[in-house]
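Q: What does the predicted 3D structure of Branched-chain amino acid transport system substrate-binding protein look like?
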Amino acid sequence: MMKKTLLAASFAAASLLGAAQLQADVKIGFLGGFTGPIEGMTPAIHAGAELAKNQVNAQGGLLDGRQFVMPTGDTTCADSSAASNAADRMVNSERVTAIVGALCTGATIAAANNAAVPGGVVMISPASTAPAVTEINDNGLVFRTVPSDAFQGEALAHLLISKGINEVVSTYVNNDYGRGLAMQFVETYESLGGYVGSNLAHEDNRADYRSELGSLSGEMIENLVVFAYADSSGQTILRQAHESGNFQQYIGVDGMISDTLIEAIGADVLEGMIATRPGSPDLPGADIFEAAAKEAGFDPNAVFAAQAYDAAFILALAVEKNGSDSREGLADAVRAVATAPGEVILPGEWEKAKRLIAEGKDINYEGAAGQHEFDENGDIMGVVVEMAIEGGRLVTKGVIDF
């Protein structure tokens, strides 16, 4: 009998220890397109979020010294069911406090509608740029550290006009991202006097886009704009456009900016390609992040890496401000830590932030990719930068002023 009692006590102690160990971690999940049309871009974005996590853990951890852990989920970017399932696992199995992500707009909308919002979980996307994100019925839970495509579409239009590119044809991937970006571009470009000969939708993940390219080339315009993804339709379209010989100037946007595109098609083919992407303003946080990213072994200029870092750091600050790993009250805490007034916190300054919060003082995070003063929809203003492919590599040309 004594032996059974001791055994039962041991099991009880082990269960309590296991519960304490689980309690010791604060989980903030990461939803990304680890497979699918942006799989070449996702590792650097994830690395940005991981950098924030590692800095927090190295400088005292969250709350009473608990570890910040980041379980991951693959949305595939293109499959709303996969995004919903990954988010459901995060919310209901992993029991995360918040989520960095998702990345593609459709994935973010599916994850929010089917799991995060019903579960009361805050999401901060570092990459979902379509205007449709603003329209999610999210109870104030969905934010993003990247400006809307309504802004990027305008910037691209102004950039092309400034370069004397006054006529184009374009094609866009037929989803929220492609449609929203293309429509804003066309509206702005034509208002500035530009001529869009044709603007055609295309479906993602097909092997042949020669029919669409044939229609576009019939306009006898050599400037081709592609609103798509570097690892799927965008890559195929540019390869087949080159094979046709009908286009001379290729133009893209953030989803097309990847080294994998250059590797797949060839630097000589893409030499001189123009693109736009959300960038970082001239703030101290940008230089701090650049140095830290290089030390961590990833490219600080990778698309959306800085935005992912900021999303993870803001969520950590919000947990600290909220005083627990509870989901309740976290959205208000996100706004509190990222909004002036308050003592400025720069990337990597976790220990300082933790001390100020403990003293009951207001803080204002100014990050790697911007100041992140969220509006009522969880959106931010931002900057868009010009990119080009020169000498076989992606080169940042500077902020687009308009």
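A (community wiki): The structure tokens above were generated from the sequence. Residues 26-146+283-365 form a domain with the Rossmann fold fold (CATH 3.40.50.2300). Residues 1-22 have pLDDT under 50 and may be disordered.
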